[in-house]
Amino acid sequence: MTDAAWETLSNQAVAAAGVVYFVALLVHLAEWASLRQRQEAPQAVVVGAGGAEGTEPPVTAHVDAAATGRRTPAERIAFLGRLGFLLTAIAAAAHLVSLVGRGMAADPNRVPWGNMYEFTLAGTFVVTVMYLALHRRFRLGWMAPLVVGFVVTTLMVAVIWLHEPVAPLTEALNSYWLVIHVVSAVIATGAFTLGGIASIMYLVKARKGETATGWLARVPSLDALDKLAYRVHAFAFPVWTFAVLITGPIWAHEAWSRYWNWDPKEVWAFITWVVYAGYLHARATAGWKGRNAAIIALVGLATLWFNFIGVNYFSSSSQHSYAGEAPAVVRQL
């Protein structure tokens, strides 16, 4: 295949992934809507007229849903959940094809992390893969609409405003440290995002109460949400530390002959590290749990995504601009 054919395949795969993600989102929203419906008791059919004095009471015949060939509400909800998960997995496969296509379209072939558009594709792909990988172990079915909705929205922003033609890597990016640094940073970003979603749902459910009905009833208990957020953040933090404080400075020294340049992206990456370090430290020493911990986690998530996208919009002095500079049409918005 030619480079142009690979780029076309990548663009088509992104479009296909977006469509399938959107259908998966609709399926999961239908699942949530079904959860709002009360579990109906088997329908009763009255046989005979009964009720008058001296007559036999009416005969009640219960209709079995299985006998009528109709799914019970619980079966319908389970089916929608499985279908949504399957569609998300199919979309993730198309998502992977789009990344491979971007790398193969470059001459010479390279990793697909040369600009903000490609970083966004990679970041959303990792969020999806981590959700799929942890779905069964941590019973994350309740998180599906939030994850898929986030991925769909971010992909839409990437395709509409961040898309750039495939181009060779700049000299500073053309290093094996790119793979080590970006892979660890993207993995940590995906994990922090899932932990942030758990923290958001903790605050939502805490406001509604443990006795919340509808789709919120399916969300785990406050204690389970708190533990899930802590475990995910505890995994992501050392990975982020490796990316920001080890591989990042080593790569900076190789590219610019300095380990630390006080570049805006470096500063914000360190701010993110400090916030999450405070989150884990507060939980381990001061016993901060629940609402306070969730708020700190969301502050960390805000700094993380501001560093990922916002710095490129608001800073004109970042030496990382070649790695994620927004197209001119976006910077003018």
Question: What are its keywords?
Answer:
2 domains, disordered C terminus, 333 residues, 70% helix, two-stranded antiparallel ribbon, mainly alpha, flat
Short description:
The chain is mainly α. The chain has helices at residues 3-35, 73-105, 116-138, 144-162, 176-208, 222-256, 264-286, 290-314, 321-324, 328-331, and strands spanning 44-47, 59-62.
Polypeptide structure, described:
Helix content is 70%, strand content 2%. With 333 residues, the protein is mostly helical. The chain has 2 domains: 131 residues; 164 residues, no CATH class. The longest helix is centred in the C-terminal third of the chain and has 35 residues.
Order of helices and strands: HEEHHHHHHHHH
Q: Which word captures the global form?
A: flat
Radius of gyration computed on alpha carbons:
25 Å
Which structural class matches the secondary elements? Answer: mainly alpha
Poorly predicted runs are 38-63, 325-333
The number of distinct β-strands equals 2
Strand order of the largest sheet: 1-2
